[in-house]
Write a structure and sequence with these properties.
The protein is mainly alpha-helical. The protein is built from four helices and two strands. The chain has a two-stranded antiparallel ribbon.
Length: about 90
């Protein structure tokens, strides 16, 4: 998550409960049956475990994003040029 914070140049919050899909479903179910009276109670129940603060300069983050984009383009080019050729049967 530190890499995400550095690359995006924004703080990234890791929740205490990392199973956020299940937690979201539980929160919605609790709201549906009035376990929580409103969204503010759900918000109060949510906790952050850690916040990752950007540590790289904007220039370094931009350079790393540029290199990442280059790697993605190379991977795409590799896939487009590679053709499957069936090998001769070994029977």
């Amino acid at each position: 998550m530190q890499v995400q914070a550095d690359m995006l140049n924004v703080p990234v919050v890791r929740p205490k409960v990392v199973e956020t899909t299940a937690l979201g479903a539980a929160y919605l179910a609790g709201l549906a049956v009035s376990f929580w009276k409103d969204r503010s109670e759900v918000h109060a129940a949510w906790e952050a475990e850690r916040t990752f603060i950007p540590q790289k300069s904007k220039d370094e983050a931009a350079h790393r994003r540029s290199r990442w984009k280059e790697a993605l383009n190379r991977a795409r080019d590799w896939e487009e040029r590679t053709e499957y050729k069936e090998s001769p049967s070994l029977h």
